[in-house]
Known about the structure:
four-stranded mixed beta sheet, single chain, 9% strand, 9 strands, globular, alpha+beta, five-stranded mixed beta sheet
Amino acid sequence: MLNENFLTGCRVEEDNGSPQCSIIVMTVEHAARLIERRRPSARRHAGAVRAYARAMREGQWILNGMPIIISRQGLLLDGLQRLLACVEAQTPFETFLSERVEAAACHTIDQQRRRSFASVLEARGVPHAHALQATLIKLMRHNSGTDGELGPMPSWATMDRALRANPHLQPAVCASLALPGCPLPESVRSPLIAMGYQLDREKTNRLLDALMRPEFYAPTEPGVQLLHEIERGREVPSQSLSTTHLLALAIKALDATLNGVTLRRLYWGEPGAPAATAELFPRLRHYTGLAEQAPVANCATASLDSSAIGVAHARGTLNGAAQHGPEIAFAVEIINPGLAMQYLSHNIGNRHVSRAHVEAIARDIAQGRWMFNAQPICFARDGRLLNGQHRLQAVILADRGIEVQVVRGLNEAAYATYDNHAKRRADLGNRLDSFGDRALAYAMANLLWKHERKTLSMRSAKATAAEIQQIISEHPRLLVLRSFARKMGHLGRASVIGYAAYVMERDDSVLAPTFLAALENGSDQRPGHPVLALRAALQKSRGNKASQSEQLSLLLAGWERFKARASATGTPI
């Protein structure tokens, strides 16, 4: 049960007991107090908070097994976004709570791959899930009058309700994908067909036929005019049309086709065009938009009274299996490769496994960096694996067991609620947070991993959070050099310059300071001097937006020329 002294702000002594888990109802008041005990590096992720708050307000919050995690010292290790959402929504929510977790395990939390709503649809067996998701989002934005805007994504719960209320969308996407030769891109064609088939399927097909067989139609046929605009964009790159612009033209052409109007020209003046030609985004006459389905209230959550609930209702601990009513059980298990294979046999209809992600987790396990972190392997009531397939695959690949919490008996709908937030980075300490350069230190450490530790067999593009933390611990000079790297941003990427400076210092601790000082100020150097030539080459490469690898190669080649000159002349200047 949550420590009351901790919540009331009293000093919390380190608790050396074993990790403990319970199912609680988190009130708004206690969420606010827990937020005050967050890690210094913890940041608000607006998109995640927005999505969680909406689910809480609408009674759509689902107990999915993912806990609020508290360290032995009373520090909030995980759950900040959910707690912020609770306060924003002014709505209590039911959740797992894990206490007495080692703070050092923080870097192993949330090392997931973010999943999309399309992956939820794929898990349900819905065909063409990604095209269906993209079509749905375009139509939802069209409904709200925000076509083409890069606003926040609709929540998964909102999209799910919209799909259930509009069963015509899936057949429309299937019909669109059955026209691979159509000049109109699928990203425009699918929402257009979804709208058109609601009004007149035959005339919508006429527009598509005119696009594909213009020789059978008059030049004033709307579909022929739309084809001309598409072809003009292909022939003249400067006139290439964005997806939003092309959808606007397609809607105009479809509207004309539906109403029997011929066109001599097809044009849309998008916002930003001269005032005389700018237009609102076009609408189809008689198109009423997507049907709406009101959210279904979750009575167990919607009827909660935060003043009456209290802070926690413990229903089990990590010392053994526990029950949430007759359904949810949770316990800590040692999962070895054999058990992982057994659990993966229940991995039905899950998203695709990322081999690179599995290998990254396996490296942490094999090299002893994995720690118990209270994030569970989750199973539905019917035994289906909902969350944890990458960790299970990593156990098999590393051929070593891990201690992990396992939760069984969850609602199948919990699948759609995982990983709806940013991936956690390594915790590099308070000092970096105060300077705001955690990202730079992280990037420099990742370059060291990429060029000095990554092998050809590794598919990962980046080091794991545990590997970054280990590199920073073993190479503290990287953190010292970040200030030099930031000053040199006018010559190249700060992360590349910082890592290159560290390589040079390890290569020759006597010459490197002279070289780096000359590179920084660029003064008192005659034409042809290697540092002067390097500065010019770096400035040119920065203007050409050279890659990290190209900039690093330039720096190290300039360093080698500098060393050669020093060796030949007896002096580097």
